[in-house]
């Protein structure tokens, strides 16, 4: 009888050890999953912040370029005044003013606001958005192709 109780106690102990081991393994797995989840969220946040920084830098660069184009158009308006008359120069000044106004609006917007505006536009006018994307893709392809041609000549 005593041997039977020892055997039962040993089996109960073994069972308890297995349960505790399983619980410990499940706890370790749960902790590992949580750590992976936290790290993925951290990486996502870092990537988003980096993308936002690049987009902001690109927006600032584009705004500067547009302002330079506006200034060049304004300078050209003076030349147009001298060569073709003030009426034509006024058209060039109006165009330069419109470009400068666009640059100011672009400069005043945050990247997130521009993304929301773009999403709204695509939802309202998907056909126009697809057309603009196709034109932009064609233009980018032409620019890349012309850049590759210049590189091949060197």
Indicate the structural class: mainly alpha
Uncertain residue segments: none
User: Can you count the helices?
Assistant: 4
Number of strands: 0
Radius of gyration: 33 Å
> How much beta, percentage-wise?
under 5%
Q: Could you estimate the helical fraction of the residues in percent? A: over 70%
How would you name the oligomeric state of the polypeptide chains in this document? single chain
H/E topology pattern: HHHH
Shape: rod-shaped
Q: N-to-C terminal Cα separation, in Å?
A: 97 Å
Provide the residue-averaged pLDDT. Answer: 81
How many strands, what sense, and barrel or not for the largest sheet? none
Topology overview:
Blueprint: H1 2-84, H2 86-108, H3 111-124, H4 126-153
Helix pairs in contact: 1-2, 3-4
Quick structural overview:
With 154 residues, the protein is mostly helical. The protein contains four helices and no strands.
Describe, in plain words, how this protein is organized in 3D.
The structure is a single chain. By secondary structure, the protein is mainly α. The chain is built from 4 helices and no strands. The radius of gyration is 33 Å and the shape is rod-shaped. The protein starts with a helix and ends with a helix.
Keywords:
96% helix, 4 helices, single chain, 154 residues, mainly alpha
